[in-house]
Design goal:
Blueprint (H helix, E strand, L loop, with lengths): L4 H15 L7 E10 L2 E10 L1 H7 L9 H9 L5 E2 H4 L7 H13 L3 E6 L2 E6 L7 E9 L5 H17 L4 E7 L18 E6 L4 E6 L10 E6 L9 E5 L1 H18 L15 E6 L2 E6 L35 H16 L7
Parallel strand pairs: 6-7, 7-8
Antiparallel strand pairs: 1-2, 2-6, 3-5, 4-5, 8-9, 10-11, 12-13
Length: 341
Amino acid sequence: MTSSEFAFELAVCQWAERAWSPSDDAAVLVARQFGTKHRRWDTIVLECDPVGLQERAKFGTESFHSDLLHVLRHAPADWTYYRDALPDPGYPWRYVRESIHEAADRDAIETRKRSNRIEIRRVRPYPDWLRRIIAIENKPDLTASAARNLVPQLERDIALSLADEVWVATATTDERVEPILLADLPAAAGVLTVDPESGTAETVWQPRSLSVDEPGTRILDRPDDDTSAARFEYVDTDWKHERRLAIAERAYARGWRAYADTMRPDCRHFQLSADETGVYPHCAAKDCLPTAAECRGQCPSYEPEPPTWRSMDWPLDGGPGKAIKRLLTRRRRRQRPGLSE
């Protein structure tokens, strides 16, 4: 199953969803391939306030981008002219008006016009549902070169401190000392060894909690030689808070099971396989767990589902490919309390 980094990534997500243990009573959400334009993480674990997560469900399954969050978080309880209700966004107000209309179309706020002025009020308060973000970099086979390439990424994550903790997950070995512990990784990064076959993981190095409530440093360029100066810039706490919440929103909407959206579940060979560790995509033609790059229309083994599978001869509406997508969607929704099936 761990023949690819994608397979290992799914194993980490399955384990985190099942076994991640926050230090308090937090609810856990897991997503994959998320981040900002400067950095993309393999796996994200969100530790959430359980009550706040229930309240977030009242806004639906779709995510809110940063401009919409600016409106939702500051929408008043009573009718107010929008420029008096919302802080100056730092960009033209016409974009705020677009976000107001988009939020109203999604029934997230109410709007009305008085004296040719747009007034807004909230439908319900936007909850403070996010507690912590855990970023995990997945490297199943951590060779010496892979470790060297990973160090600059981890140093950037730690300096920016957008996540509360930064981890590296690697496949467990039979060595007396795990090879990853011999790599020259930053001490602030945690280390997790994962056994995909048994669906278990072990913490072999605890991470340091990062200062998410303080300004961060974005490393723009770090030359390899010792004579050239590094380039960096500071980011303030407001920016970090907005980015963290926007990342959490996208993770809430998509989760980690959206891989079927970039694969071809409409192929007659596409299946889901299940074992004690979880559910995974499976290609019956190649007898393997395929990646998104392999499972596409250009694959030599690709065969569309027979039309009869999508009509009377198939008991589920839309054929087995559609049924697989519905199954994954239902499993994703179950991790978001308050959403109806």
